[in-house]
Design goal:
Oligomer: single chain
Number of strands: 0
Order of helices and strands: HHHHHHHHHHHHHHH
Number of domains: 1
Mean pLDDT: 83
Low-confidence stretches: 178-194
Shape: globular
Length: 369
């Protein structure tokens, strides 16, 4: 079974373009319809559990499937094999970017890719918002999260604060008193780290431990930690990193590999990758036995509703910030609007849009010069 898991998830990790929804659909096709390893009901149970823990949903689903089929060894094999192809591809691209990224030809391609990336994130906001904003009160919570983050409130406070407010609101509606015994999940203290490498690892470990919602919420954390606070990256480099994570197969979180390489070379790429994905293995391991109770918990459901709308708010704020860098002129704005329309109207695979954006950017840049 371990060999079968390894072969399946190496294949999926190599060909799974299109984001988490596409990854999940491909997994369902393989393990439910073709191989019949799981029933549809069990697959949905595992999918539901991934939405209640932080981390990359499609990666965590792969880890859950591996655990279900072959225990702890299956957990490790499925997760690593799904992540590994994308990490290798992104690592190679990061090396090429550092060596050749300043060439005009590369910049011409990125000129067209960046507006497409903004459109992809904006479309994800639109699509996720239709699902997450289920009530007027959740809309209020989302607006409050957007305003507080736009005025500088820490992303973790926004996420967890909105989640707890949503839980409290549900208790009030049901006429109950909220009583919780818990230990506060404090962010890692990283300012006193002994080196840039250890600091980089702890930042990504923190992000992997607290990031709920779509992988695009990663943008907000990267913007704050690496652009705003430390100035280790520029906004342009950040867009390039997330674009590479989107364009390559596998989880968008492999953008961490790209960021790590830009900041600290091969060691940075390795530690950033381990840091951001390690919590996913931990959370799946501890939550897998609890899946039946997680699915029916009203408090867990309310908390997740609040976290999801806060995630949308963080995505909206960072998209506006990055749009200033990615949309410098009228042709770029046009490419962004066209890409959004194609995503909305025809549901095109985002990977093909990125390819088309690169081609358009190259042609437009040549025409303008």
């Amino acid at each position: 079974m371990l060999k079968q898991l390894a072969l399946l998830f190496l294949k999926l990790g190599t060909i799974s373009f299109g984001g988490p929804a596409a990854h999940i659909a491909m997994m369902e096709d393989e393990v439910v319809r073709k191989k019949k390893w799981l029933s549809s009901e069990t697959f949905l149970d595992l999918l539901g559990a991934t939405n209640l823990i932080p981390g990359p949903n499609s990666t965590e689903l792969a880890i859950h499937i591996g655990h279900k089929q072959a225990g702890w060894k299956g957990l490790l094999v499925a997760g690593i094999c799904f992540i590994l192809p994308a990490v290798i591809i992104v690592w190679i691209i990061a090396w090429a970017y550092v060596r050749f990224g300043s060439l005009p030809e590369i910049q011409s391609l990125l000129y067209g890719v960046k507006p497409v990336m903004i459109a992809i994130v904006a479309h994800a906001l639109y699509r996720l918002g239709r699902t997450a904003l289920k009530t007027k009160m959740l809309m209020v919570f989302c607006l409050a999260a957007l305003v507080t983050n736009a005025f500088g409130m820490n992303e973790l406070l926004v996420l967890f604060g909105t989640g707890f407010l949503a839980m409290l609101w549900r208790q009030i509606k049901e006429g109950r008193m909220l009583s919780l015994n818990f230990l506060s999940a404090l962010p890692f203290v990283i300012n006193d780290a002994s080196s840039r490498l250890s600091e980089l690892f702890l930042i990504f470990l923190k992000i992997g431990s607290v990031l709920f919602g779509s992988g695009y919420v990663l943008l907000a954390f990267l913007q704050t930690d690496f652009v705003d606070h430390r100035q280790w990256l520029t906004s342009s480099q950040l867009i390039d990193a997330v674009t590479v994570g989107q364009f390559t197969p596998g989880p968008v979180f492999t953008a961490a590999t790209f960021v790590g390489y830009l900041i600290a070379g091969h060691g940075g790429a390795l530690l950033a990758t381990i840091g951001i994905f390690l919590p996913a293995f931990f959370f799946v391991a501890i939550s897998h036995p609890l899946i039946p109770r997680l699915r029916t918990s009203r408090l867990a459901s309310s908390f997740l509703d609040g976290v999801n709308v806060a995630s949308l708010a963080l995505m909206a704020v960072v998209t506006v910030k990055l749009g200033k860098e990615a949309l410098p002129d009228v042709p770029a704005i046009f490419m962004m609007l066209l890409s959004f329309f194609l995503l909305w109207r025809f549901r095109l695979n985002s990977a093909w849009l990125v390819v088309a954006g690169a081609a358009m950017g190259f042609c437009v840049s040549r025409f303008l010069t």
